[in-house]
Amino acid sequence: MQAANAQHKSEEAPLKISHLAGNCYVYTTTGQLSDGSRYPSNSMYVVTQKGVVMIDVPWDTTQLAPLLDHIKKQHGKAVIACIATHFHDDRTAGLDALAARGIKTYSTAHTLKLCKDNHNEQARYIIPEDTTFRLGDRQLQVFYPGPGHAPDNIVVWVPEDKVLYGGCFVKSTDATNLGNLSDADPKAWTPSMLRVKAKFPNPAFTVPGHGEMSNKDKACDHTLELIQTYNAGKNK
């Protein structure tokens, strides 16, 4: 991937924006874990003829305004929508600020309920668990595979660019474990992942919620390996 412009190339930059493929761009910010440590988080935006659609939010909410400014300057288009892929705050913090700017925010009903239950920010509009946004020259296909990292995690497929946004449902190829399992269902995760692989079998790139991007299906396959290792250890 190539950085969208020079100011985002530094590894220390609070906001890193990289062109992934076609009209898809990944943005990475760093959020704070419960133990106080800092951890990078990936999200994505897609440039369409109708406007720009964000998939998830910057975990570091101070970078939301710089992100919106960059998108407007770089692409000459405004952000028109944001899709939250599950209820955790690395995917929902900032939804209120987006709505206040007149940007439509979307989630499934399952995510909305979990946001309410956990006092996280909530999307204003509900979408079916399986639906397609058609925005001129681009489609965004939302798919709920079943529980995995979280009970409500969805993935998004951009068919024109063959990009699969897995979010936290998918682990990066440099991940050594499944990470935060506080709301995970490791037993259901394998069949859920197999549904994603069957539904979108030939991605050019896969975007995990954290860590390095992956070409083809390597991140999904690596996630399956991590799940199997975890479940084998639990069954001993």
Automatic annotation (TrEMBL):
MF terms per GO, please? beta-lactamase activity; zinc ion binding
- One GO-annotated biological process of the protein: response to antibiotic
Indicate the principal place this protein occupies in or around the cell.
periplasm
Report the SMART domains cross-referenced here: Lactamase_B (SM00849)
Give me the reactions it catalyses: a beta-lactam + H2O = a substituted beta-amino acid
Q: What keywords is this UniProt entry annotated with?
A: Antibiotic resistance, Hydrolase, Metal-binding, Periplasm, Signal, Zinc
- Subunit relationships: Monomer.
Write the protein's name.
beta-lactamase
Q: What organism is this sequence from?
A: Chitinophaga flava
Organismal lineage: Bacteria, Pseudomonadati, Bacteroidota, Chitinophagia, Chitinophagales
